[in-house]
Amino acid sequence: MRFTKMHGIGNDYIYVNCLKESIENPSELSKKLSDRHFGIGSDGLILIYPSKVADFEMRMYNSDGSRGEMCGNGIRCVGKYVYDKGLTTKDHLTIETLAGIKKLKLEIEEGKAKRIKVDMGAPILEGKLIPVNNFEGRVIKEPLKAGGREYEMTCVSMGNPHCIIFGSDLEKLDIETQGAAIENHEMFPNRINAEFVEVIDKNTVKVRVWERGAGETMACGTGACAVAVAGIINGLLDNEVTVKLRGGDLKISWDGDTKSSVFMTGEATTVFEGDVCI
Known about the structure:
By secondary structure, this protein is of the alpha+beta class. Helices cover 16% and strands 42% of the residues. It contains 4 helices and 18 strands. The protein is globular and about 50 Å long.
């Protein structure tokens, strides 16, 4: 099987062109190939298919084999992959995902896609839709006890569910313990991603991410969007936000209207290509 290793600011996945390749058990394959000691090493597996409703379809699997609805860093790499590989000549693309059809705008440099702006759609703020147990309306500044600690959480879905914790001391954070405790908390029936946030100023935050099904990652695109939305509705951030993750920065913009799309801009990078026996 031919594969391409790519990353969006350190959030790395294995990409396979399923217009050519046939994958029988993507969940098991993701677990096998994602292993950083016995496999290729990645945060998961992303498969690119033809689509009847968009230019392409993206199917994303976490490193534990679970399927994710969306991946913000991953979808930017899909845009770069299909353009750089000559699968399309368009610099405006639509990509089908489990979280709906997403629109991409590619910035081209020297014949390659460099930066990609993604229309991530409107945020989901109702607790029952994120989902968060026992919440019908918004989940803003609500108490959460997890991992022996008490937090104040704001929850947002950007296709994937996110629990955002502001005021974190990122240097002292035991993310292995706290992230896992929040991910698997009984309040979140589908598990959840956890973002720990340090506000630098009204336009800048630092974030560490614990991703559902993958553990701590260098970055999370939907998580960066969720953090910006949560900061704006809590009055902590302005409408244009730089989210500084371990792997690099993402630019997020949202006008605060619950019906308006969140926009994410960032780079996508090809690391290497190869063949693997499956």
